[in-house]
């Protein structure tokens, strides 16, 4: 997330209502973040307009501060635009035909092989059709994939017409029953009129049940134009985004989905046949915003209502605060899990944060055995006091030492959280 956006979100932290000027300032930065993620310019513009309308005047809810509220609204809308929930093609008992289209190099042939493996493992009887009528090498590539997966590959001949291909396919199915046929087609490096006609003809002859556009996540700005053209010339029913294992943040997915309105069924995540996953809009939304699972943290903070987790200043985070927080956090699930949702935090976390519930109870006992003065000012806890506290809580002096060390580390972490705008201090309306 850009520093500038972070600054704006920080400034919003003490507001209880989102004003138009604030939202607009934040949205300028959100738009930049989208463009950096390769979301098409016009899609970013439209998206920001929609979010602004939703955000202005909104009450800041529950335990979120205003900055988090903006992020939440943006994230929710991004997930919605990407399709909401993960979605898969609906298959009939028989007669399913997938028609794969896309530019050359997008990953059509690879994805065809991946789909064959995916559906074969689900018990489907798959047949692949190598329908590149110009390049024998392209057909060979699919034949090899078919062999690897263990499914037959029907080859189209050079210059074969769509009607001939259809007859050939029907003849094959007479002798070898198949319930899912996946047709791999030819591509071009650029949108090409002759190819579009050819694909439209073949599609017309085969009447596929799904027409899937394969989009390379690295396509960037061009994804919009590609998706728009295939949608208008061929007609699409769904999308597959490949090469999500690369550096691309996923803006191409947003653009393609936005312009076609068609579901993104799968994401390609490696060159291997196993590298196909359902497309999860929430994960990709986080990736587009460059925020990782911070959003998950916001959600959980919301669920447990962290109002009472508010702390004063980082330096003032004392053992009494720790006790109160531990009791709050226990409502939310394992502390380690929660902390590990913050990007970069999993490596920085000391092993002490693998606290299970039993340990949390022990810490509770230890702090409960301290006087309020000791909790507020841990520095006064000398050797003698440590011994007394250990006895009182049924623990050892080493346990007390570890707790005090953990508290120090936690204090540092609180400072970091606050710098990230995630700390509870100030919170809604401040205190
Ligand atoms: P086609 O021209 O559309 O059929 O594209 P191909 O299926 O031949 O793929 C082009 C290149 O992209 C090949 O080198 C593939 O191995 C690679 N590729 C396809 N999908 C993925 C993916 O999801 N991740 C990665 N890393 N590479 C991919
Ligand atoms: Mg190919």
Automatic annotation (TrEMBL):
Catalytic activity, as annotated: GTP + H2O = GDP + phosphate + H(+)
Pfam families: SRP54, SRP54_N, SRP_SPB
GO molecular function (one): GTPase activity
Keywords: Cytoplasm, GTP-binding, Hydrolase, Nucleotide-binding, Ribonucleoprotein, RNA-binding, Signal recognition particle
Domain SRP54-type proteins GTP-binding: 263-276
Coiled coil stretches, renumbered: none
Description of its domains: Composed of three domains: the N-terminal N domain, which is responsible for interactions with the ribosome, the central G domain, which binds GTP, and the C-terminal M domain, which binds the RNA and the signal sequence of the RNC.
Subunit relationships: Part of the signal recognition particle protein translocation system, which is composed of SRP and FtsY.
Role played: Involved in targeting and insertion of nascent membrane proteins into the cytoplasmic membrane. Binds to the hydrophobic signal sequence of the ribosome-nascent chain (RNC) as it emerges from the ribosomes. The SRP-RNC complex is then targeted to the cytoplasmic membrane where it interacts with the SRP receptor FtsY.
NCBIfam families xref list: ffh (TIGR00959)
Protein's UniProt name: Signal recognition particle protein
């Amino acid at each position: 997330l850009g520093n500038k956006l972070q600054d704006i979100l920080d400034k919003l932290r003490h507001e209880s209502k989102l004003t138009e000027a604030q939202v607009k300032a934040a949205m300028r930065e959100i738009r930049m973040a989208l463009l950096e993620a390769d979301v098409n310019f016009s899609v970013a513009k439209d998206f920001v307009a929609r979010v602004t309308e939703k955000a202005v005047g909104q009450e800041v809810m529950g335990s979120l501060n205003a900055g988090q509220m903006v992020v939440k609204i943006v994230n929710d809308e991004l997930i919605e635009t990407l399709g909401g929930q993960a979605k898969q093609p609906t298959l009939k008992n028989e007669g399913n035909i997938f028609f794969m289209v896309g530019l050359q190099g997008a990953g059509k042939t690879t994805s065809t092989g991946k789909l064959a493996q995916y559906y074969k493992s689900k018990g489907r009887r798959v047949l692949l059709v190598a329908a590149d009528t110009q390049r024998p090498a392209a057909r060979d590539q699919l034949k090899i994939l078919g062999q690897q997966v263990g499914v037959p590959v029907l080859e189209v001949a050079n210059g074969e017409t769509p009607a001939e291909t259809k007859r050939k396919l029907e003849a094959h199915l007479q002798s070898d029953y198949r319930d899912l046929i996946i047709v791999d087609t030819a591509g071009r490096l650029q949108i090409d009129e002759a190819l579009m006609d050819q694909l439209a003809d073949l599609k017309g002859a085969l009447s596929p049940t799904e027409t899937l556009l394969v989009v390379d996540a690295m396509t960037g700005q061009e994804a919009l134009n590609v998706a728009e053209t295939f949608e208008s010339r061929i007609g699409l029913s769904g999308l597959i985004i490949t090469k999500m294992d690369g550096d691309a943040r996923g803006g191409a997915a947003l653009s393609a989905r936005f312009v076609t309105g068609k579901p993104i069924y799968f994401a390609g995540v490696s060159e291997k046949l196993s590298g196909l996953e359902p497309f999860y809009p929430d994960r990709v939304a986080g990736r587009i915003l460059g925020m990782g699972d911070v959003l998950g943290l916001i959600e959980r903070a919301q669920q447990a209502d962290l109002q009472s987790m508010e702390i004063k200043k980082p330096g003032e985070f004392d053992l009494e605060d720790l006790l109160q927080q531990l009791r709050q956090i226990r409502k939310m699930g394992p502390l380690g899990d929660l902390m590990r949702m913050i990007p970069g935090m999993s490596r920085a976390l000391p092993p002490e944060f693998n606290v299970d519930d039993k340990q949390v109870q022990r810490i509770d006992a230890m702090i409960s055995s301290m006087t309020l003065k000791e909790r507020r000012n841990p520095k006064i806890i000398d050797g003698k006091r440590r011994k007394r506290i250990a006895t009182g809580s049924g623990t050892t002096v080493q346990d007390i030492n570890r707790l005090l060390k953990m508290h120090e580390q936690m204090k540092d972490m609180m400072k970091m959280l606050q710098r990230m705008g995630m700390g509870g201090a100030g919170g809604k309306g401040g205190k």
